[in-house]
Amino acid sequence: MENTFGMNIIPDNDALRVEALKRYKILDTPPENAFDNVARLATQIFNVPISLVSLVDEDQVYFKANIGMGNARSTSRGVSLCSLSVMQSEVTVFENAPEEPCLLSNPNVAGNFGLKFYAGAPLTTRDGFLIGTLCIIDKTPRTFSGAEREILASLARIVMDEIELRLSAIKEQEKQQEYIEEAAATNEELLTSNEELSRTQENLVSAIARLADLEALKDIAIEQAKLGIWHIDAESQEFVPSIRLKEFFGYYPNEEMSYQVAVSHIREDFRTQVAREVDEAIQTGKSYDLEYPIIMFRSGQLRWVRATGKLNPGEKGREAQYSGTIVDITEQKEDEQRKNDFISMVSHELKTPLTSINGYIQMLAVKAGSSDDSFAVNILNKAARQTRKMRSMINGFLNMKRLETGKIPLDKRVFDMAELVLEAEEESIATISTHKVIFAPVEQTIVLADRDKIGQVINNLISNAVKYSPKGSEIYVACMNIAQTVQVSVGDQGMGVSEADQVKLFDRFYRVETKEMDTIGGFGIGLYLCDEIIKRHNGNIWIESELEKGSTFYFNLPL
User: Fold this and answer.
1) Cα(130)–Cα(151) distance, integer angstroms
2) Buried-exposed string 241-262: b where 16+ CB fall within 10 A, e elsewhere
3) Which of 43, 263, 438, 555 could form a disulfide with 541 if both were Cys (CB 3.0 to 4.6 A apart)?
4) Which residues of 324-361 are buried (b: 16+ CB within 10 A; e: fewer)?
5) Beta strands across the sheet bearing 485-491
6) Cα–Cα–Cα angle for 342, 346, 347, nearest 5°?
7) CA 404, CA 533: separation in Å to the nearest integer?
8) Phi/psi at 84 (5° precision)
9) Rounded-to-integer distance, Cα 528 and Cα 352, Å
10) What secondary structure does DSSP assign to 281-337, as a single string?
C-alpha cells in the first residue's frame, strides 16, 4: 500500500480494528439516506462544500456518504486523510493543509484537487475501535474552534449510532428470515417463529425509539449552532422553514410562513437583489452566501441575518431539494456600526486641531528659515511630514466610512492611463530615495474612471511596496491592455504574503501578523480602500505572492 504521509498510518491494533469494522457488514455498500442526511447537515452547519462518511478498511477507504465530491465510492488508504483520523480519538484538524509537513506529498493537497482544510471526527464503536470518520473538507484555509469540533464530534456519534442501528436491523432481518424458513417445517417451529417475531417487533419499536433519539441529537446540534434551517422542493416549490427560522422573522412555531411572505420581510432596498440571487441559484444549481436586514413580523424590529443555500440534486432515489441556513448577525453588525461611528467621530474631531497644528508648524518654519536656524528648520520639516502622515491616515478612515455608506461619488471622466502612470513615476522620483522604482513603458490607454481615485490606488500600492520590501531593492510598475481591460501591476522583492493571509488581505483592518510587521505602522485600511474603489469601477484587484521572494499586486478596469 502506497503511503503519501511520510509517517506511520497503521494503528497497533489495526487487525482487530478492521475485524470490528467488518462485523457491521457495511463496507462497499450503496448510499443510504440516513448517512447522506447527516453529511449534508454537516456541510450546512459548517458552510463547506464537501462532507464524507468514510470507513477505513485494511487497504481502502470506502465512502458510505459523499456530499460534494462527485461519484467517488472509495480511495486508497495511503492517500486519504481519513487514515490519519483513525489514529487518535480526538477530532483531527488541518486548518491550512499545505503548511502541514506530513501533507506536502499528499496528492489531494499538492495536486489538482486543492484540499486546504480538513476536519475529521472518528467513528468509535462501543468497544473502542476507530473504524472511520465523519469529515468536512474545504478548498479554502479556515480556523476551526473548539465548539465546532464538539459539534462535529456529536454528528460523528450520530453516524455511529446509525451504523449500530443498521446492524441491529440486519440481524433482525436475518433472524426473521430464519424464523420464516423454520415455520414451513413444523407447526412447533411455527409457534417458535411467532414468538421470535413478537420479540422482533419489540426490538423494532425500540429501534424506532432510538431513531427518535438520534433526531433529537441532530436538533441539539442545530440548536447549538443557532441556525434557522429551510428547504424548498425543486419540483413542487413547497417552502418548509424550521421553528427557529420562523422566530427570526417574528412568527410563532404554529404559524404558516410561505417563501413569498419571508421575502416580503427583507428590507426593501435589499429585497430585489436577494430574491434575484436565490432564484438564480435555484435555476442554475449554484450556492449563495448573502447578508441582509429583515423586518420582524409584529414587532417591526430590524435584524441582520446571514443566509446560505445550495441545490441538492435528485440522485440515487432522492428527490431534488434546495436547502439552506440563516443565522442572526445583528450583534455583529451593531458592533461594526458602533466602531465605524466612533472612527468617524474621532477622525472629524482630530481634523480641526491637526489643521491648526500644521499652520503653526508652517509659521514657525518660515520664522526659523528667516533667522537661518537650520536645526529648527530640519525639526519643523520632520514635524510637518508627520502631520501630513496623520492627516492622510485620518482621511483614510473618513474615506473608508464614506465608501461603506456610498457617500463618496465617483467622478468618472475619460482620461489616458499612460498620463496617470507618468504622474506616479514623477512623484516616485521626487519622493522615493530608498528604492529603485522601475516603470515599464505605457501605451496610450483611454479609460472612463475617477482619475483621482485610481491614482490613489496606484500610489497606495507603490507606497506599500516601499514599506514592505528591503531598502535598495527594486519595485516594478507596469500598465498594459489585456482582454478588453487595462491591467496595472506593482511588484516588489519583499517579505511576501502567505496563502492564508492572501485570502483576508483586502478585509477592513486586517494586518499580517509576523515579527517583521511589528516595526511597520498601519491600520489595515489602505488595501481595503483600494479594493472598494476598484470594485465600484467594476474591476478586480488581487495579489500573487511567494514568501521571502516578494509580491505583485494587480488591478484591472474595463475598457
Assistant:
1) 18
2) bbebbbebbbbeeeeebebeeb
3) 555
4) bbbbbbeeebeeeeeebeebbeebeeeeeebeebbeeb
5) 436-439, 474-482, 485-491, 550-558, 540-546
6) 115
7) 11
8) -75, -30
9) 26
10) HHHH---EEEEEEEE-TTT--EEEEEEEEEEE---TTPPPEEEEEEEE-HHHHHHHH
**Residues near 54 by beta carbon (within 8 Å), at least 6 away in sequence:** 61, 62, 63, 64, 80, 82, 120, 132, 133, 135
Q: Is 207 exposed, middle or buried (0-12, 13-18, 19+ CB in 10 A)?
A: middle
Distance of CA 225 to the CA centre of its chain: 16
Phi-psi sector, 552: left (phi>0), alpha (psi -120 to 50), beta = beta
Residue 222's SS3 state is helix
- pLDDT for 420: 94
Model pLDDT, residue 97: 94
Cβ distance 384 to 355 under 8 Å?
no
Q: What is the pLDDT of residue 234?
A: 60
Helices (H), 371-505: 374-405, 417-431, 451-467, 499-504
Would you say 475 and 466 are in contact if contact means Cβ atoms under 8 Å apart?
yes
* Per-residue pLDDT at 33: 94
Strand-strand pairing, 302-312 and 321-328: antiparallel
Partners of 232 in the β-ladder: 239, 322
Distance CA 120, CA 34 (A): 19
388 vs 31, 184, 348, 382, CA distance in Å?
Answer: 66, 99, 16, 10
- Other C-beta atoms lying within 10 Å of the C-beta of residue 513: 8
How far apart, in whole angstroms, are the C-alpha atoms of residue 523 and residue 529? 12
Average pLDDT of adjacent 10-residue blocks, the chain of 559 residues = 89 94 94 94 95 95 94 93 94 95 91 94 95 96 95 95 93 87 72 73 64 54 67 74 89 90 91 87 81 92 89 67 85 75 60 71 80 81 72 63 60 93 90 92 94 90 91 95 94 91 84 64 74 91 92 95
CA–CA separation, 298 and 312 (whole Å): 34
Could you give the CA distance from residue 316 to residue 73 in angstroms, rounded to a whole number?
Answer: 13
Tell me the H-state helices in 142-238.
146-183, 187-225
Contact present, 557 and 447 (Cβ < 8 Å) = yes
Work out the number of other CB atoms within 10 angstroms of the CB of residue 199.
12
C-alpha grid cell, residue 436: 529603485
Question: How do 436-439 and 474-482 pair as beta strands?
Answer: parallel
**Per-residue confidence (pLDDT) for residue 517, from 0 to 100:** 60
